[in-house]
Amino acid sequence: MSLDTYGRAAIRHISEPKALDQALALLRQGEVIALPTDTVYGLACDSQSPAAIELLYEVKDRAPHKAIPLLLSSESQLLDVTSEVPDSAWEIAAQLWPGALTLVLKAASHLPSILTAGGDTVAVRLPDNRVVRVLAAGLDRPLAVSSANLSGYENCRTSNDVFAQIGTRLPLILDGGTTPGDQPSTILDLTFSPPRILREGPVTREMLSPWLH
Questions:
Q1: Residue 85: per-residue pLDDT
Q2: Cα–Cα distances in Å, from 213 out to 84, 91, 92, 95, 200?
Q3: How far, CA to CA in Å, does 22 sit from each of 19, 25, 194?
Q4: Average pLDDT, the chain
Q5: CA torsion angle for 91, 128, 157, 202 (degrees, to 10)?
Q6: How far apart are CA 66 and CA 114, in angstroms?
Q7: Structural element, H or E, at residue 54
Q8: CA neighbor of 38 nearest in space, from 154, 104, 102, 132
Q9: How do residues 184-198 score in pLDDT, each as one tens digit?
Q10: CA–CA gap between residue 105 and residue 5 (Å, rounded)
Q11: pLDDT for 122
């Protein structure tokens, strides 16, 4: 699948009738769409489609060695995309999900290698955002999601911000208003003992301190 120029992305508010149905249909067709999350706007596609993930890399101008995180519909989807879930992951999820915390875990062998950039880990998060969870549930698997901006450019907090940067590269931008966050999620790598914070964001080191020893 190659990057097409759409001319002008359709911007539809998430409350519009059939807006989420259209988004889900495009995801099933292997398209990349933009949507609001609980941090910043994101680019989303089917996490089981290598062609769709390749298109996401192209839309964003993302370097191929950078893996794409997954956004879940529920905690139970952890079991679908990881090879092992340590007790600490369930404990953290119970305390801090849904929210702006990404966990790095061992990846399930069936995940597309382009998703994990050829690595053996996968980054997963349960977002505090109904739209993302509804679409991931409708697709029956997590969404592959990266921030909706060109690599190296500012994160987007509104649908107009997304349109200004990459509006001609997308068929649809879901408008959920201004996102509540202005920074991406915290990333905690649970494949190390003790776990390592790879990026600190809204979930602080202090909040994670019970699991850092």
A1: 95
A2: 20, 14, 14, 17, 17
A3: 5, 5, 43
A4: 94
A5: -30
A6: 9
A7: helix 50-60
A8: 132
A9: 899 999 999 999 999
A10: 35
A11: 98
Q: If you count them, how many residues does the chain have? A: 213
9 versus 63: which is more confidently predicted? 63
Q: Is-contact 10 171, C-beta < 8 A? A: yes
Place of tokens 């201004």: 178
The string of pLDDT tens digits covering residues 68-82 is: 999 999 999 999 999
Q: What are phi and psi of 60, to 5 degrees?
A: -90, -10
Determine the distance from the C-alpha atom of residue 129 to the mean position of all C-alpha atoms in its chain, rounded to a whole number.
11
Give 189's strand partners: 104, 196
Q: What are phi and psi of 12, to 5 degrees?
A: -125, 130
Domain boundaries, the chain: 10-211
pTM: 0.93
Q: Are 185 and 201 spatial neighbours (Cβ–Cβ below 8 Å)?
A: yes
User: Could you say which DSSP state residue 76 is in?
Assistant: G
Chain center to CA of 152: 17
Q: At a CB cut-off of 8 Å and minimum separation 6, what does 156 contact?
A: 34, 40, 41, 147, 148, 149, 162, 165
Phi and psi at residue 70, to the nearest 5°: -115, 140
Helix (H, G, I), strand (E, B) or coil at 144: strand
> Angle 69-70-76 (CA atoms, 0-180°, nearest 5)?
145
Q: Select from 1.10.10.10, 1.10.3210.10, 3.40.50.2300, 3.90.870.10 the CATH code of 10-211.
A: 3.90.870.10
